[in-house]
Fold this sequence. Notes:
The protein has two helices and two strands. By secondary structure, the chain is mainly alpha-helical.
Amino acid sequence: MIQWVEKTLKSPAFLVGVAGFFIAAMVFLGRLDNDVGHLQDDAAGLQASVAELQVSVGEIKANQQRILDSLKNIEVALGTRVHGSDGTVSIPVPSD
């Protein structure tokens, strides 16, 4: 049994198989490292996109608030309109 193990370990086919395994492992690890690099680049790009989106959402919220404030001012102005004796209507617009 020991002779068979020694003979197998010294055989060229076994050595070529071990060398092939290590070469395949190195190729696999190289590709894995490359793929991880691409994924990290993609993740960084997504983080930048999310940051831009958050800024845009903040701007939208600010614009919505301006619109709501304007509508409130219009509502107040319509509630305080004054009819003149000659039929004209004046609407005092509150200044904020």
